[in-house]
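Contributing: when you submit paired examples, paste them exactly as shown. First protein:
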Amino acid sequence: MAAALGHIPAFKYRHMRHSPLQHRVYKAFDEDFLPIKHRMVNIYPRFNNWDEEHILFAYRRLLYRPEREKIIIITSDGQPNGDASHLIVTVNRLE
């Protein structure tokens, strides 16, 4: 697992998931916000929203960006399928 994550510390927790994740990126890094703002209106609850894994996905995408300051904006339906304690540990490790 450590090799797959690069230099991101591997978690000691085991989390099993049997359904595929679908990471949806509503705005690419090189896109201006105004032309794509309509995409934000089309966000609706979906299944397989494992918040902790999506946060790790976003973190990995930002990791090698040249910008000094980085922001992750998270939208949630309030009903994550993942494990709440794993989500808390994930966020704490990334902070």
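Second protein:
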Amino acid sequence: MNQITLKVHSKLDSKTPLNSLSGVFGFLFRVSLFMGFD
């Protein structure tokens, strides 16, 4: 999980704070969906 978080943060570094927030929430939402399906 830590590796995934680091990769996401490194990708969001090139985006604006607002886009980073939406990206993080979208990522967490997808993760929660995968957890629910699994």
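If you have annotations for the second protein, write them as plain sentences, like these:
The CA atoms of residues 1 and 7 lie 10 Å apart.
The mean pLDDT is 71.
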